[in-house]
């Protein structure tokens, strides 16, 4: 109606003629929007879409000519009067009608695009949520694997002390009770205070010291840090556990150096132990605990952590760097 009334002052005449073209305009628009585009264009059946679009345009063009002629008779009767709107020509009428059809189809296409975009986003969020749940479950499983592995080694030590009826056995059981308390009530959390984790490691070293006695030389260097720093629980224990399991020197003495410091926004954990032979070094790279901790680090920090293993003929070292504000 807007296009037809540009050069004519009779709006009622323009409205009548536009109404005569409405059925073919609506029919063609809906044919494209709800049949041709969903069934062929969106499904990438481009040949069929082009073929049926050609048929639709031919049929609609015929109906436009019929509607324009009928609209002219309806609006001005049989009197020509050299007037509007057929006098503008069929080309102009085709342009006006197909412009409205194109506008309607573009709205339908835009709506379909955003609907598909929202559906893909919802699907992506669902997949991410499922993946997150799987990772959480796997992390819990990995923690559960660490606990029995740690308990197995410790109970073996207590069993050995009980067989020899050593006086250190009761003290070792008390230390184990403290460690079990930490495991039961702290490791279910996503993060624990760093000072609690450090105390847990110290208790473990004292526990092993009861077993090794004079055959253990442990050097501990811990820098000052804020009490607000938190890290995932049981993160360092597998490294320390492997040191006691595989580490010793040719003289039967186990030397362990543990260093913990904060540089800028990173926490540096360095653990070094003596080894008797190359074979032992290779064996120390294996084991359930170490494998699990590498998976946990990957899940928690992604690529934001650094793990370096250094082996020599006499020592085995692990350097772990993790962000403290992650």
From TrEMBL:
The keyword Isomerase does not apply. It comes from the Bacteria. Coiled coil: none annotated. It comes from Zunongwangia profunda (strain DSM 18752 / CCTCC AB 206139 / SM-A87) (Wangia profunda). PANTHER family: SENSOR HISTIDINE KINASE YPDA. This is Two-component system sensor histidine kinase. Pfam families: His_kinase (PF06580). GO terms for cellular component: membrane. Keywords: Kinase, Membrane, Transferase, Transmembrane, Transmembrane helix. Residues 138-216 form the Signal transduction histidine kinase internal region domain. GO terms for molecular function: phosphorelay sensor kinase activity. The chain crosses the membrane at residues 12-34, 46-70, 90-109.
């Amino acid at each position: 109606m807007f296009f037809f009334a540009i050069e004519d002052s009779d709006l009622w005449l323009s409205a009548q003629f536009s109404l005569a073209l409405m059925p073919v305009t609506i029919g063609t628009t809906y044919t494209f929007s709800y049949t041709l585009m969903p069934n062929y264009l969106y499904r990438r059946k481009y040949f069929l879409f082009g073929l049926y679009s050609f048929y639709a345009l031919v049929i609609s063009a015929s109906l436009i000519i019929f509607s324009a002629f009928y609209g002219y008779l309806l609006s001005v009767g049989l009197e020509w009067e050299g007037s509007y709107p057929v006098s503008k020509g069929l080309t102009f009428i085709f342009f006006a009608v197909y412009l409205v059809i194109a506008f309607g189809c573009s709205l339908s296409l835009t709506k379909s695009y955003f609907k598909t975009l929202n559906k893909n986003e919802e699907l992506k969020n669902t997949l991410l949520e499922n993946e997150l749940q799987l990772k959480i479950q796997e992390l819990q499983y990995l923690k559960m694997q660490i606990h029995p592995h740690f308990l197995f080694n410790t109970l073996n030590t207590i069993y050995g002390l009980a067989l020899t009826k050593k006086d250190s056995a009761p003290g070792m059981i008390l230390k184990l009770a403290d460690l079990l308390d930490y495991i039961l009530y702290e490791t279910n959390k996503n993060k624990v205070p760093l000072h609690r984790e450090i105390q847990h490691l110290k208790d473990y070293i004292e526990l092993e010291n009861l077993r090794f006695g004079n055959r253990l030389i442990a050097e501990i260097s811990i820098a000052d840090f804020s009490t607000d720093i938190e890290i995932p629980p049981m993160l360092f224990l597998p490294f320390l556990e492997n040191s006691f399991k595989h580490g010793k020197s040719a003289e039967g003495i186990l030397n362990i150096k543990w260093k913990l410091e904060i540089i800028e926004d990173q926490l540096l954990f360095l653990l070094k132990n003596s080894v008797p032979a190359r074979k032992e070094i290779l064996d120390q790279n294996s084991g359930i605990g170490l494998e699990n901790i590498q998976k946990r680090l990957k899940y928690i920090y992604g690529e934001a952590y650094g793990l370096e293993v250094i082996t020599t003929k006499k020592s085995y070292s692990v350097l772990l760097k993790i962000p403290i504000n992650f």
